[in-house]
Amino acid sequence: MFHLSVFAFTAGLFVQRGMNRAGAWRYAMKRDAEFLWIYVLWSFISGGTKLALSSAVNHPTSVPEILTLWIPSEQYWFFGWIALMMILSALVQPWRSTARAISSLTLVTLGSLVMWGIGGTVIGTQGLGLAFFFWVALIVRGDRLLGILKGMSLPVAVLVAVFSTVVMLALVSLTGATTPTEGAAGRTAVNVLLGVLAATAGVVAVLLWSSVLARADRRAEVFQYIGQRSMAVFIAHVLFMAAARIVLLRLGVDQVGLHLLIGVVIGVGGPLMLLWLSQLLRVQWLFSAPQWLTRRV
Fold first, then answer.
1. Residue-level pLDDT at 184
2. Vertex 287: Cα angle to 144 and 258 (nearest 5)
3. pLDDT by residue (tens digit) across 195-226?
4. SS3 2
5. Closest to 135 in 3D by CA, of 119, 111, 152, 151
6. Residue 183: left (phi > 0), alpha (psi -120 to 50), or beta?
7. Any residues with CB less than 8 A from the CB of 143 and at least 6 apart, and which?
8. What is the DSSP secondary-structure string of 62-104?
């Protein structure tokens, strides 16, 4: 319900600063080159892996399907979505005036409500309901948010984090709240509003629990380490989790709890290890666009 909303929100936090420093369109084009490189590369990696292991995967693929890059597979639609958000940010630049911020946020909010729970098939048409979270973060700005979180006392932060968590869990478990990127079958005006509330509560909860952990325990540095590399985890986690599932089933392990535990560990640890290896072997282009591409933009 809320994990992609968190990604959408954090994706927008430092865009304003980047565009002010590098120029709005230059920054947008460089970031889009990065995102589209990752989208194309990992669409081929994911498709090729599924093709090679077609007898063991849940959803086999084919060469023609892999080559239809305008139809995203797995989670890679997110890169088409964020590329679109970068273009809209450069076009509107809502931070330039209060009137522009309010009017654009109003339009984006209405558009997100209309598209909440609806996903298209062509790249750039999925996840449009998430635009609200990106746009709020774009206007608020990361440094301001960090100032707000640091200025909040620990007891207040814990209290709000607990409240937000309870609200999110209650809405998800007790209502028909529509998820932001899918769920159109049970989509009603009420369920859409409940879904927005649940996702917003989830974003607030994640932000505040992160702030609480950062201040309360130095061991939270582990989560900081993972968070700073969350893009690599997002890109590759499905492949590693699928591999873990295949191995466990081949070994005769079918306990759901073990699948969840091992899947999460491998799904996070595998991409982090691959990222480390890519840096060690100087093949950073696995997770970021090569300089010859970004320099041309």
1. 63
2. 90
3. 999 999 999 999 999 888 887 666 667 777 88
4. coil
5. 111
6. left
7. 17
8. -HHHHH-TTS--GGGHHHHHHHHHHHHHHHH-GGG-HHHHHHH
User: Are the C-beta atoms of residues 111 and 131 closer than 8 Å to each other?
Assistant: yes
pLDDT of residue 219: 64
| Residue 170, token pair as written in the block | 């209650």
Per-residue pLDDT reduced to its tens digit, 112-150 = 999 999 888 899 899 999 999 999 999 999 999 999 998
Residues 6+ apart with CB under 8 A from 73: 43, 46, 47, 61, 65, 66
Q: Which long-range contacts (CB under 8 A, 24 or more apart) does 292-296 make?
A: 293/33, 293/37, 294/30, 294/33, 294/34, 296/33
First to last CA, the chain: 35
Q: Any residues with CB less than 8 A from the CB of 296 and at least 6 apart, and which?
A: 33
**Contact at 8 Å (CB) between 239 and 46?**
yes
185: its two tokens: 């079958």
State percent of the chain over pLDDT 70.
Answer: 96
Integer Cα distance of 24 and 109 in angstroms: 22
**Which of 86, 6, 57, 38 has its CA nearest to residue 232?**
38
SS3 content of the chain, % helix, strand, coil (to 5): 80, 0, 20
Cα angle 112-7-94, degrees, rounded to a multiple of 5: 55
* Residue at token pair 């509107």: 92
Helix (H) or strand (E) holding 114: helix 98-115
pTM value?
0.90
Q: Which amino acid is it at 213?
A: L
